[in-house]
Write a structure and sequence with these properties.
mainly beta; 31-stranded antiparallel β-sheet; 12-stranded antiparallel β-sheet; 2 helices; about 0% helix; about 60% strand; disordered N terminus; disordered C terminus
Amino acid sequence: MLRSVPTLVFAIASAAWLCGQVAIAAEPLDEDIPVLLQADELNHDRELGIVSARGNVEVSRSDRVLLADTLTYNQKDDILTAKGNVSILEPTGEVIFSEYVELSGDFKNGLVHDIRMILSDGARLAANGARRTGGIVHEMTKAVYSPCYLCPENPTKPPLWQVKAIKVTHDKRSRDISYEDAWLEIKGMPVAYTPFLSHPDSTVKRRTGLLVPSVGSSSDLGVVVKVPYFININPWQDITFNPMYTSNEGPVLAGEYRHRLSNGELEIGGSFTNDSEGDNRGHIDANGIFDVNNTWRVGFDANRTTDDTYLRRYNFPSSSTLTSRLFAEGFRKRTYLSADAYAFQGLQESDDRGQTPLVLPMVNYHHVGEPDSLGGRKRLDGNILALTRSDGTDTQRVSVNAGWDLPYVGPMGDIYLLSASVRGDAYHVTDLDRGDSKSDFSGFSERLLYEVGLHWRYPFVRAQGRAVQVIEPMASVIVSPYGGNPDTIPNEDSQDFEFDDTNLFNANRFPGLDRVEGGPRLNYGLRWGVFGLGGGHTSFLVGQSVRARDDDTFADNSGLEDHFSDIVARAKISPGKHMDLTYRTRLDKDDFAPRRNEVSLSAGPDALRLSTNYVFFDRQPDSEFSTSREEIRSSVAAKLSRNWQSEGSFVYDIEQSDLRSHSLNFTYEDECLVFNTTWGRTFYRDRDIEPADTVFFRVNLKTLGEVSTQPL
């Protein structure tokens, strides 16, 4: 008898060392894979060929480990018997517990009494007994499966939910867990029965088969049933069929194909239906991007639908305008080149398809040079655009802008940037509407612009305690000629204009190339900020622009149409992670009346978090903001308990005194269950789309699947 045996090699060589000429390892064992044995006591009966171990027994072979109080190995029959606190750790992460285990020498076959298993995802499986075959199949009788934790105060209390079955089979080759004569229990009460149930084990990430169906109803579509089916073609390709049946409008075929390639990725989705009126309706939503080489990549976005309201009526993702794009772009050192083609589909009732442009092509070039002997950098920008309409103005444009930028830091810490540029634009237009008093223009036009600017800022920094304070006056002087916007040049890309704190110091505040700022102008402002070492910060910015004379290039109420501009300001306050406040405004230069206000607030800990966004802007003719608007959006998220959380939100149009939408959500989640319910109402109207109430709930039994309803 040996005591305190340290890690013995349980194979032919170690057996000969322990027991003379008697081999302890049985013939079926692979001699290349040793068995390691550790125990407090070890006995060997040479006559019977039996080895027994007692006390803290640990046996490991390959990636499997067995622990037990006692162990007996019959060399002749190649049978290993373990008793008392038996646990087996599988290579895939599962742990098996029992009081009595009888296995073959290679651990692959045997019987287990009163088995309990913890799967790699934490789920539990228990049974009266189990048979192990080939190390890959466990057949269990009178089994129970649940991922739910047991009550620590009363472990015999049934979990939140569990599946019981007369027979359960876990096949590691197919990675399936199947049940025969199974029923689902909630809090110990049976609620559903099925003669057969199967689901993948925790090692499966993707598997071909039915996904969880959903059932619901709609006042418009009637009863709605979805039965999605997933096809796992290979690790880099899959298809999801998501057919939908509606009692009022008939079936809808929908699906998505995904493909990940070595040089890119591709996704193609869409749907089709023939509705109750006999109309064919559908949509396509596809995109892809592919690397050609280390410099070039190409891609596309395809988004089209048969009619304006189809996507919203059938609850597909939608926006007010669908954009399709084909592009190629290249990156090399300090040079960027792109070529794009765009097609648009407007889904608003006011959209005129004859006025919707087709952009083919739009080419952009940008280059920044190396620093020269003075420290300056040359830059070159180019643009080519061809825009056509079936009913309206056609535009072709070529634009080239060459510039030079010289940064300089003075001896007192003052910072300068001198910039100079020359730009030339050439246009050809057809049927350009120049207003009621002039006839339409067709032909060529051009312009040549120069611009010189000097930008200055002087940051004063002071450290005090655990905070750093920065005061920074800023100014810029820009000189360019007047008259850069003749009425023979169209405005295609500069209509969405807004003067605010983000473009106060821009040389050209228009977002595109068709409109330019002209004349001498001075921009000035002051920025102040306090930044704590713990991450909190507060900052303010205020500024204004002065022009040498009024400029009718800017629309009324834009804030830049007069000699002195409106005053723009921004404040950001974030003393810690529990509060973020941003306020942006534009004030009338004469009476300081607000022309635009925007407040964004997020405050509170995770237990109670408030988010609010308020926006107001005054009417600005001949722009996207042709009417005034005042609106507030707010939401409150509360963590009611460890498992319960809730969120409510609303959108209110203050200008029209009208509630646009509101919703309320409750969610329960623990280790084995997710329950979610949402109620809301929208007041949106658009042709065949009416205001609607929605009720949605979802029950997700983790590791088994999800049951959900469509909006009602």
